[in-house]
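fyi for ur records
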Amino acid sequence: MRIAALLPILLASCAPVAEDGPRAVSDSHADGALFVAGKFGNTLAKIDLASGTEVARVDSCANPHELATSPDGKHVALACYGGTSVDIFRTSDLGRVKSVELGESARPHGIVWHPNGDLYATAEGRQSVFWIRSPMGEHETFEYSTGKVGSHMVAVSPDARHAWTTDLGSKTVTLVDLKTRRAPLSVEVGEEPEGIALSPDGETLWVSARGSNKAFALDPMSLAIRKEVDTGRFPLRIAVRPQGDFAVTSDLADGGLSVIDTATGDVVRTIPVSSPEEAQMRFQVTILWSPDGERLYAAETRSDTIAEVDFASGEVLRRLPGDGGGDGLAIIE
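which gave:
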């Protein structure tokens, strides 16, 4: 599949698919809250993980996408892909407390709330990355050009000196120096690279190229490819487990998750979240690890559900509400 074939699905709002209600899980059930951006309904929702129910929903902005929670868990930032701002909400009641404007045609998409307290976001329409310093105070914004088409997702180094983007239209990964402003470095990586994740130690950059059905392990500073890994079909996202031992791709066309051993670079198993026949009905996109690395959450945008997966067993524990085309995910526990 290619972008042209997917556009009608990505852009069209689909009717919800009936689902059984959340069922009881084991005594080790998840606590905390999951936040869901409804990109078709223009909403932000809060799901209580203990009960599996939606406890709050508010209007957000046009076509909201990626989400990130603050280090203290008190706020969640939303990239307004259909507009020009990053909006910040309280996690307690989803009250909007701030909107940071990024400029004409920004179309922010990927977003990271760094442990240092600062926000970093791509601005796809401006072919750039923004650093939002002190977002909850008298914030400052700094823009860094990638010069590439479709700078979509972003990762940031543990020391916040560097950022990396996947550039869908240019088929590249770009390294941005956030401190010296030296010229960005871009390297072609597969077809339609989109997913990106940095290992917790900052030593390996993982990229999923949806048009190649591959994941790539890169040297973060040279962007040299260390390993190519065959995954399931259309690996839209990649996420590294907090422990750093596994990377997982969200394989949209298969409805599964490819589990990669980060030490060997081999796919060691596949988790079937839905069948290949169900894959287009559910349209699995964003994936998110729980902070303890025990569960994965997979946004199923067309069926308005979020699959909660036990990583050890590969069992789909339940499907949580993701009304309005749930896509961007964030979590606090």
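The domain at 63-188 is CATH 2.130.10.10 (Methylamine Dehydrogenase; Chain H). thats all i got for now
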